[in-house]
Amino acid sequence: DVPGARAGVDALPIRENLRGKSAYGAPQLSVPVQLNTNENPHPPTKALVDDVAESVREAGRELHRYPDRDVVALRTDLAAYLARQTGVPVTIDNVWAANGSNEILQQLLQAFAGPGRSAMGFVPSYSMHPIIADGTDTEWLPIFRREDFALDVDAAVDAINGHRPDVVFVTSPNNPTGHSVAIAELRRILDAAPGIVIVDEAYAEFSDAPSALTLIDEYPTKLVVTRTMSKAFAFAGGRLGYLAAAPAFIEALLLVRLPYHLSVVTQAAARAALRHADETLGSVAQLAAERDRVSAALTAMGYTVVPSDANFILFGLFEDAARTWQHYLDEGVLIRDVGIRGYLRATIGLVAENDELLRVSGKLAAKEL
Ligand code: PMP
């Protein structure tokens, strides 16, 4: 009896390229062990929560006013963090921020892609890249990775030369496969690309590979590096993503961003979380060690584990990945079916959660492998 419910999406005058498409769909289920969305499993410290609460309280006095449209204080803090983490002397003029790196990616496609333009990605990779391409009416050009899911740089360069895409996405470390892309390989892609190259470094803090930030000065008209506070920073609920690029890119994004897109509350909370970066990022080494422990244990059970530089692992081989995903769920462990035949992806959690993943995996290995 919901008013209007008799009309389905197909009855709407929706854009043709959105017809029949599905929405981003990681199930949000309440189960004991949630290892499906690549978050940092460590809850914020009391000191961080207190700092966020106090900062938001203070910011609350300004809630009748629009927030700082240009996000000056937070961008300054993010630039300082990036400079510290990568050694590249970026400043506020190199940094832009938005509600999650998904919004950053959307703004980039709004400015640099859209109708009549194309974006290329090396799949399997992050599922939102094609969805944001659809949302901005950008033609999506998927190019397959090698059989072992590593990026085939020769094939990538050939595809770029053949299709001349306006935007190239390189995810490093790649979600869901975990591989990083070396700087020399990125240079080859940047040299070939006629338009912009977005290096999506959502998981950079988990990897020892050098950041693409080191290439910004070399490719000021091509390179954009996107980052997020959702993963290593344990701030997924705060919604804060950012990018580093030459200052001209930030000027371009000012043309498409909605004014006041980052609320007073978001800006204050993110700055507070950044003040606690050292304690939060202290969990990164431990998560990397857990990733290696889980990978070794799964390998010992007979699973195929794709080597990962991030806080998740892709593993198999399963005869029917969807069925196996359900088996894990029935045992209280939520992992992710990313639609790659034979494989599932598990986020690295707390030690006890990982032990649960291994317990169920051991049980299944006896049956499946
Ligand atoms: N890029 C990649 C590769 C991701 O895996 C994710 C999160 N799943 C994001 C971007 C977006 O994260 P957020 O919008 O939370 O910053």
Detailed description of the structure:
There is one protein chain. With 369 residues, the protein is of the alpha/beta class. Helices cover 38% and strands 14% of the residues. It has eleven helices and twelve strands. It has helices at residues 46-60, 72-86, 101-112, 128-135, 153-163, 183-192, 247-253, 264-275, 277-300, 321-330, 351-368, and strands at residues 33-34, 95-98, 118-123, 139-144, 167-171, 196-200, 223-228, 241-245, 304-305, 312-316, 333-334, 343-347. Helix 1 packs antiparallel against helix 8, helix 3 packs across helix 4 (128-135) and helix 5 (153-163) runs parallel beside helix 6. The radius of gyration is 21 Å and the shape is globular. It binds 4'-deoxy-4'-aminopyridoxal-5'-phosphate. Its EC number is 2.6.1.9. It is an enzyme of class 2 (transferase). Its cofactor is pyridoxal 5'-phosphate. Homodimer.
Question: What strand order characterises the main sheet?
Answer: 2-8-7-6-5-3-4
Q: Which range best describes the helical content: under 10%, 10-25%, 25-40%, 40-55%, 55-70% or over 70%?
A: 25-40%
Structural category is alpha/beta
Q: What's the shape?
A: globular
Order of helices and strands: EHHEHEHEHEHEEEHHHEEHEEH
DSSP strand (E) fraction?
5-15%
Radius of gyration: 21 Å
Largest sheet: 7 strands, mixed
How far the N terminus sits from the C terminus, by CA atoms, comes to 48 Å
Tally of extended strands? 12
Q: Give the count of helical stretches.
A: 11
- Stretches with pLDDT under 50, minimum 5 residues: none
Bound molecules: 4'-deoxy-4'-aminopyridoxal-5'-phosphate
Mean pLDDT: 96
Catalytic activity: L-histidinol phosphate + 2-oxoglutarate = 3-(imidazol-4-yl)-2-oxopropyl phosphate + L-glutamate
Subunit structure: Homodimer.
Pathway: Amino-acid biosynthesis; L-histidine biosynthesis; L-histidine from 5-phospho-alpha-D-ribose 1-diphosphate: step 7/9
Family: Belongs to the class-II pyridoxal-phosphate-dependent aminotransferase family. Histidinol-phosphate aminotransferase subfamily.
